[in-house]
Design a protein that fits this description.
Keywords: Membrane, Transmembrane, Transmembrane helix. It comes from Planktotalea frisia. The chain crosses the membrane at residues 42-61, 82-106, 112-129. This protein is mostly helical. Helices cover 66% and strands 0% of the residues. It is built from six helices and no strands. The chain has helices at 2-20, 25-32, 41-60, 82-98, 102-108, 114-136. The longest helix is centred in the last third of the chain and has 23 residues, at 114-136.
Length: 143
């Protein structure tokens, strides 16, 4: 049941991305082109997502546990450190250059465009490069 619900959720997300036009990198580029062909539709899509998320969290947090898990898994750190800022900057720069975020690129695979495959290959390479860098760094234990 858990996998069926995950599939359904992914399909709803993908359909929403497709209907909103966010699989088209030109939409993203035009959102960032404030002085040129600015298109505010991305802001409306994000605003709608934020509103639905706020409503969803209000409903979900009333429960003692998620439907398909024994407990909620939430981040334990709220620190804003150099790694978070650098990762956010890299994500934003990649999004602005490519016109895709990973969430929109996955449903865009259905378009058959080579740019989407190249973007997701680069994202995957970045994940593995980060793991490689992290595994080569010495770890320190707190006292």
């Amino acid at each position: 049941m858990k996998l069926i619900f995950a599939l359904f959720t992914g399909l709803v997300f993908g359909v929403g991305i497709a209907i909103s036009g966010m699989m088209n990198p030109a939409k993203v580029f035009n959102f960032f082109d404030i002085a040129g062909t600015w298109d505010p539709s991305l802001a409306f899509v994000m605003g709608g997502a934020v509103i639905l998320t706020l409503i969803g969290y209000r409903l979900v947090w009333r429960r003692n546990a998620p439907l398909f898990e024994s407990r909620f898994q939430i981040p334990i750190s709220s620190a804003i450190d150099a790694r978070l800022v650098a990762g956010s900057a890299i994500f934003g720069i990649g999004w602005g250059i490519a016109g895709f975020c990973p969430g929109a690129a996955i449903p865009a695979l259905g378009t058959g465009r080579w740019e989407v495959v190249l973007f997701l290959a680069a994202v995957t390479a970045g994940f593995y490069a980060r793991r490689l860098v992290a595994s080569s760094q010495p770890t320190t234990k707190a006292a």
